[in-house]
Design goal:
There is one protein chain. This protein has helices at about 1-15, 80-90; strands at about 20-25, 30-40, 40-55, 60-75, 105-115, 120-130, 130-145, 145-155, 180-190. By secondary structure, it is mainly beta. A hairpin with a 2-residue loop joins strand 6 and strand 7. The longest helix is centred in the first third of the chain and has 15 residues, at about 1-15. The chain is elongated. The relative contact order is 0.18.
Length: about 190
């Protein structure tokens, strides 16, 4: 009788257990929009996701990571000539040093469900220029027919990643040439089984 009860319990557990499902980020359908601000205005643009994955367990986000292709930075608010100059400067050693650091990386360390509508508090590690710092942000994740859509807004303090150009944290008397330390990333990921 004990064996029958044990077998029934194991069978029930096997039926109710659902393995973690990994979804590969569709880089063509994913994007990161950036906004950087300075005393006299702001600039916007995009940067591509190079690769990544998200993991769900019983429909709940449990982990994931993605690489950001720093060589793909674009500017969307200036004409072609001025945009090219800004992008060149952003890729230079003054900012992100894309020649030496072609990718940045984000790794989820914890995903905390906030409700039943796919809202999460995401804790993770962001690595830029080989410097890693924790970030926390809110995200929404939904799954439909084997495809995940994940969106979130991250505020990044560039001074933590040795991105110094025009930063009041490193230089005095910049006046209206000051570029604010915080910049903003709007993440839009699509991932499939």
């Amino acid at each position: 009788m004990k064996n029958l009860i044990l077998f029934a319990a194991l069978a029930f557990a096997a039926l109710s257990f659902k393995a973690v499902t990994n979804y590969k980020v569709d880089t063509a359908a994913s994007n990161i929009a950036w906004t950087g601000e300075k005393v006299t205005g702001k600039h916007t643009g995009n940067v591509k996701v190079k690769e990544g994955s998200l993991s769900l367990d019983n429909g709940k986000l449990t982990g994931g990571s993605f690489l950001i292709d720093m060589t793909s930075i674009t500017c969307t608010d200036l004409d072609a000539g001025m945009a090219g100059k800004l992008v060149g400067h952003l890729k230079s050693a003054d900012f992100f040093g894309a020649d030496n650091y072609p990718t940045a990386k984000f790794v989820i360390t914890r995903a905390i469900p906030q409700d039943t509508k796919g809202n999460y508090k995401i804790l993770g590690d962001l690595t830029i220029k080989e410097k890693t710092n924790p970030v926390v942000f809110k995200a929404n994740v939904s799954e439909n027919a084997g495809t995940i859509s994940a969106t979130g807004d991250i505020t990044v303090d560039r001074s933590l990643y040795d991105v110094r150009f025009g930063s009041g944290s490193f230089f005095d008397n910049l006046g209206d040439k000051t570029i604010y330390d915080e910049f903003y990333l709007k993440i839009s990921l699509t991932a499939k089984k």
